[in-house]
Structure formats: C-alpha cells, structure tokens
Amino acid sequence: MAGVYISYPFCAQKCSYCNFASGVFPKSLEPIYQQRLLDELGGTKWDWTPNTLYLGGGTPSLWSLDALGSVLAAVPGGPWPEATMEAAPGSLTSERVAAWRRFGINRVSLGVQSFVEQEIRRTGRKHTAEIVAADVALLRREGIEAINLDLISGLAEQTRTSWEESLDWVLRLEVPHVSVYILEVDEDSRLGQEVLLNGKRYGARDVPSDDLQAEFYERAVERLASSGILRYEISNFSRPGWESLHNLKYWKLEPYLGFGADAHSFDGKWRWANTDAVGEYVAEAKELADVENEKYWVGLRLSEGVECGTRFGVEIERLVGDGLLERAGSRVRLTSRGVLLSNEVFQQFLEV
User: Fold this and answer.
1) How many whole angstroms separate alpha carbon 59 and alpha carbon 68?
2) 53 and 106: one domain?
3) Do both 214 and 351 map to the same domain?
C-alpha cells in the first residue's frame, strides 16, 4: 500500500538548526498556498487508496482547522490506519487535538529536540520540558497514544549531563516511539553555515565535537534499548508494533505521493519533486529511479538491513572487510561502527 505526504512549510519562527524548506512567510501567502495544494490534490489520478498519511513541514500543528479539514477531505482512504501530524511543543490545544482526531489523525510527532532550557533557547525554540509533558498528557487524554519525540544530538552547549537529562525525560514520559538525529552541519541551516564558517552566532562554537555527538547517540541507543525502545532504523526507535508505518515506506522503497512545497514522490519507478519555493511548487520534474541502487542507501538505514543482489558485490565485500557492514544470512546490515559512518557507506552505492 502507498502513502501520502503533505507539506505545510509555514512556521512561527525558523529554528537555527533547521535545514528544511520551511520558514516564516507572509500570512497573505497561506490562502494562496492552500488553494494550490487543493488544486494539486484535486488533479491527482488516484490509482490506489493510501493507507498512511503524514503531515510535515514546517509546523502543520499551526494549520487552521478549517483549512486542514478541507485538505484532508481531498485525500482518499480516511480514516487511515496511520495518519501523523508533526507538531511543535506548545502549539497543542484541546480544541486542536480533538479536531485532529475527527479528521483521522492518530499519531503525533513532537519536535522536542531537547528538554534542557539552555539548549532549547539557543535553537530559537520557546518550549520547556514541562510544556512537552503537558502536550503528551493532552494527546493521551484525547485518545492519541502513538506519540513520537524528536531529539537532536549536537545542539549548542549540549553536554553529557544535559543529554542524560533529555533521555531521562523521554523515558519518564513513556512514549512508544523516539527519533534521535545527529546534528546536520550544512549551508542550509543558520547554525550549520555558522559552524562551517567558524563563526560564533547561534552558539556555533559551543556545538559538541563529532566524537561527542556520536557518544551521545550511542548512549541514546543503549538507554532506549534498556527500556524496550529498540532501534529499527538509524534514527528511529520504538517499542515493538509502534514503528512509523509511513516512514518505513521510504526505507523499503514503497510508493508514496507528496503534495505541497518541497514534497517528493515515488511510484516504484519514477521519482519527482515539487519546487521548494512556496507559491511555485506546482512545477514538477520526474526521473527514472534506479531501484537496485537505491535499496542499499535507503534500505541499509533499517536495522534488518537488505537482501543482497548480484550488484555491488565488490563494494559490499570491501565494506564487510572494513567492519562497516556485516552479513546475516542472505542479507547485509550496518555494524555499530557502520551506523556512525553511514553516510560514507551509502556513498559507496551512489558513486558506482
């Protein structure tokens, strides 16, 4: 079965670490974007009924309820077995969550990133650990138990002690799914660009070393596993049966359609993407997908690894010899060291 991703690129503020095509835009753009999104959905030939839906961005939890309801009504298959709303802590209200439930939303991913106030403030975010706890309690009162919390390893001023504090909060809240990302340093975020320029804005000089970030990540793997929250993909951890069905489609090369700015689509053969410019995203370009190639650099993200084919034999043997891949019957998967060097592993399959 296929999935649907819908992008809402509007935010109340642009976080320093964010490298997505989202931001603070004039309010006058929202109704124009809304109509173009409805036009794109309405012009789609649905050859299948989606069984997962994902609302990302941006901050879709800020979407007006009337506008959100009209968009979701244009997607067939509701109520979907899994429908996820990305949400910023502090943006939830009883009215909003109750409406999401009526619209078919049954999973919420909170972009927490940290529970330590000093780290949170350096990102530009305004929530507190107590606000996150209140949001989790609100979701549960409204009948949403499928809750994910995002953490980032590598935020400015993060220390071993503060990382343990964030992990303490995650385990205390007993959510069934956690995502742990290592800070991405690139020119697409203000913090990343400042780090590359050796600047000091946004706490760039207080970002922990790569080795320390890797240590934080491995500590998260250890502590989450000890509480029954197991890694099933490089950045994603869950209790058994609570995995993200929608995100698994990306890593297993199953089809999905994306709508809105910077949304990507894949039908099993062709890939295409909308422009990331709000108001211009209807322009599309397609390219033929190389599925045999792609299964390694998406499928190897999964803890179960991928089934070996006849292609890339030399590359696989070299990576096994280097201790970055290991064999498990007819499959290959990343070793613990390979997880930390996964981008280097994936590059071997992109350059062939």
Assistant:
1) 12
2) yes
3) no
Residue 186 lies in a domain: yes
261's tokens: 């700015």
Considering 250, 277, 306, which residue would you say is the last residue of a domain? 250
pLDDT (tens, 9 = 90+) of the chain, 352 residues, equals: 799 999 998 776 655 555 555 556 567 678 888 888 898 999 999 989 999 999 998 889 999 999 999 999 999 999 999 999 999 999 999 999 999 999 999 999 999 999 999 888 887 778 999 999 999 999 999 999 999 999 999 998 899 999 999 999 999 999 999 999 998 655 545 555 555 555 556 555 567 788 998 999 999 999 999 999 999 999 999 999 999 999 999 999 999 999 998 899 999 999 998 887 765 654 455 567 777 778 887 888 899 998 888 788 888 888 899 899 999 988 999 999 888 888 788 878 865 4
Expressed as residue numbers, the domain containing 332 is: 291-352
Domain at 338, CATH number: 1.10.10.10
**Shared domain check, 297 and 241:** no
- Confirm if 179 and 235 have CB atoms less than 8 A apart: yes
State whether residue 81 is helix, strand or coil.
Answer: coil
HEC assignment per residue over 236-304:
EEECCCCCCHHHHHHHCCCCEEEECCCCEEECCCEEEEECCCCCCCCCEEEEECCHHHHHHHHHCCECC
